[in-house]
């Protein structure tokens, strides 16, 4: 399924209505966070606090808060494709249909 900018804007609007959303990391983001935080045992639950479209970065980007149990929270941005939202959440199915299939090299299949 090919998504237009209008479709993505609708999804962003729907996501914003559900904020904050809770998610888990997909493997690529988890590897990044382990290196960044120095905590190799983390499997963090992330809180999505913002959603926006960044065409130059490849689509929908989320502002994410990582609460790793320390005194401070870390805030960063991540592509929606690198976040796993609970399948039981009402918006999860729509997100799943939007995510492009990726090859091993990180490019969208069919590019």
From TrEMBL:
This is Uncharacterized protein. The lineage of its organism: Bacteria, Pseudomonadati, Pseudomonadota, Alphaproteobacteria, Hyphomicrobiales. Keywords: Plasmid. It comes from Methylocystis parvus. It comes from the Bacteria.
């Amino acid at each position: 399924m090919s998504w237009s900018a209008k479709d993505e804007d609708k999804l962003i609007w729907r996501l914003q209505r559900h904020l904050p959303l809770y998610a888990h990391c997909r493997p690529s983001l988890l590897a990044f966070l382990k290196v960044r935080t120095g905590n190799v045992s983390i499997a963090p639950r992330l809180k999505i606090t913002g959603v926006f479209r960044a065409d130059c970065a490849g689509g929908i980007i989320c502002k994410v808060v990582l609460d790793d149990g320390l005194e401070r929270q870390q805030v960063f941005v991540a592509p929606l494709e690198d976040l796993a939202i609970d399948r039981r959440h009402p918006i999860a199915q729509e997100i799943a249909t939007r995510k492009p299939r990726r090859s091993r090299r990180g490019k969208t299949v069919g590019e």
